[in-house]
Amino acid sequence: MLTPSPVFNQSGPTEFVFRAFTAVPELQALLFLFFLLLYLMILCGNTAIIWVVCTHSSLRTPMYFFLSNLSFLEICYTTVVVPLMLSNIWGAQKPIPLAGCGAQMFFFVTLGSTDCFLLAVMAYDRYVAICHPLHYMLIMTQKLCVQMVTGALGLALFLSLQLTALIFTLPFCGHRREINHFLCDVPPVLRLACANTRLHQAVLYVVGILVLTVPFLLICVSYVFIARAILRIRSAEGRRRAFSTCSSHLTVVLLQYGCCSLVYLRPPSSASEDEDRQIALVYTFVTPLLNPLIYTLRNKDVKGALRNAIVHKAASGTK
Fold first, then answer.
1. Is 192 within the bounds of a domain?
2. Cβ(17)–Cβ(94) below 8 Å
3. I need a surface site. Which of 20, 132, 215, 274 has the fewest CB within 10 A?
4. What is the number of other CB atoms lying within 10 angstroms of the CB of residue 65?
5. What span, in angstroms and rounded, lies between the C-alpha atoms of 55 and 303?
6. What residues contact residue 15 under an 8 Å CB cut-off, 6+ apart?
């Protein structure tokens, strides 16, 4: 795929504005406080996971290495979107320059794509752990883990650069520069173009297939082998333990891939701007918020490490 010139088209507007959630001041204040609270919870929950994994030697395994990277991605992912969103909820609409909109789209797509690739990497990690437990540490070396995370980020950067550069070579109509969204996502920005966007829609589908469909199929294949291995375990306790290490990951996969597929893989004729914005709220707030909750509530190792850290902190504070 050839990369178009990343120079933004100057024939369209030099800035965009986001459509307000509501014009009622009281509701604006409530929405601001609500989303701010969710954002702070996302920051605290994911930071806690990173801190626990980094400070507890018992959690320095490939599984938790990937989990801490996932939490770091969630922090960056929401930070690209939420501060600007909060500033637009509070008070009058604030314009975003064309270059700023392009930058937000680039980082949003990059981080979201890396998130999807990393979930596929985590599925492979679970496959090796359950299907080849005796060779797990020989296969999942520290070097391989770093290479897989770096490869996921590199591929996401490449695809995001192609997509963002292609979209911002389009001319945008000056009288339609209001984005019916709270971020510069690909579908709502494409709707503002006053040119034929069939090529751009096709590229979006190709990127969507590479980011969503292919990793999801790899995850499904991994879990077919995992399910077969679990069913061969004779003890009920052994099967329960094996399944519990995968259930958290499966829950996050269904949330992430399900919501993103509804936005990026459905035909434009069936897409609704308001529905896209509502679904985007789920993968911008709900998924990053649930990730630390799912992994801590369903993982004894992480719960134990957090409990010990809190007890140790409380004990040191009383001295």
1. yes
2. yes
3. 274
4. 20
5. 14
6. 95, 96, 97, 98, 101, 177
Helices H / strands E in the chain, number of each? 12, 3
State the sign of the Cα–Cα–Cα–Cα dihedral 216, 130, 230, 247: negative
The answer to whether the beta carbons of residues 36 and 197 sit under 8 Å apart is: no
Closest CA to 197 of 304, 271, 282: 271
| Domain range for 246 | 15-301
Burial class, 172, CB count within 10 angstroms (exposed 0-12 / middle 13-18 / buried 19+): buried
Number of structural domains (the chain) is 1
CATH of the domain at 258: 1.20.1070.10
End-to-end Cα spacing for the chain: 62
Assigned token pair, 43: 């920051």
Length of the chain measured in residues: 319
Is 311 part of a structural domain of the chain? Answer: no
Q: What is the pTM for the complete model shown?
A: 0.87
- In-domain check, residue 309: no
Has residue 308 been placed in a domain? no
pLDDT per residue rounded down to tens, the chain (319 residues): 444 444 444 444 568 888 888 778 788 889 999 999 999 999 998 998 898 888 887 788 898 899 999 999 999 999 999 999 998 887 777 788 888 999 999 999 999 999 999 999 999 999 998 899 899 999 999 999 999 999 999 999 999 999 999 999 888 876 548 888 899 999 889 888 888 888 999 999 999 999 999 999 999 999 999 989 888 877 777 777 777 777 778 888 888 888 888 888 877 666 677 788 888 888 889 889 888 777 766 666 676 666 666 666 555 655 5
